[in-house]
């Protein structure tokens, strides 16, 4: 997140992708959901709405996988706001 906040988007993206790889390996649904959400924010900062939507959909998928109803609703509302 720090790289994103410092507008170092390439470094931020590479760190998030590394996080995805590690969290898939250990089946960590919470971190997968969080990382996809952070990638959606990165895409928003880079004015890439298609990627933002894709990443939010992935965040929702992993959130549903861990039965996090409140989180899922928040993510779905954010996705709706993109329409």
How does this model look, in words?
- There is one protein chain.
- With 83 residues, this protein is mostly helical.
- It has one domain: Serine Threonine Protein Phosphatase 5, Tetratricopeptide repeat.
- It is 83% helix and 0% strand.
- Helix 2 packs antiparallel against helix 3 and helix 3 packs antiparallel against helix 4.
Annotation keywords:
mainly alpha; 83 residues; flat; Serine Threonine Protein Phosphatase 5, Tetratricopeptide repeat
Provide a brief overview of the structure.
The protein is an all-alpha fold and 83 residues long.
Structural class: mainly alpha
CATH architecture: Alpha Horseshoe
For the CA atoms, what is the radius of gyration? 12 Å
- How much is the average pLDDT? 88
The helix-strand sequence is HHHHH
Put simply, the count of helices is: 5
What is the C-level CATH assignment? Mainly Alpha
CATH topology: Serine Threonine Protein Phosphatase 5, Tetratricopeptide repeat
Uncertain spans, ≥5 residues at pLDDT below 50? none
Strand content: under 5%
Major sheet size, sense and barrel closure: none
Distance between the termini: 25 Å
Number of domains: 1
- Which range best describes the helical content: under 10%, 10-25%, 25-40%, 40-55%, 55-70% or over 70%? over 70%
User: What is the number of beta strands?
Assistant: 0
């Amino acid at each position: 997140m720090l790289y994103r906040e410092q507008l170092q988007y390439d470094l931020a993206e590479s760190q998030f992708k590394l996080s995805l790889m590690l969290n898939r390996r250990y089946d960590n649904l919470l971190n997968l959901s969080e990382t996809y959400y952070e990638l959606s924010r990165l895409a928003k900062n880079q004015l890439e709405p298609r990627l933002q939507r894709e990443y939010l959909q992935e965040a929702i998928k992993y959130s549903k996988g861990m039965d996090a109803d409140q989180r899922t609703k928040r993510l779905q509302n954010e996705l709706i706001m993109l329409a």
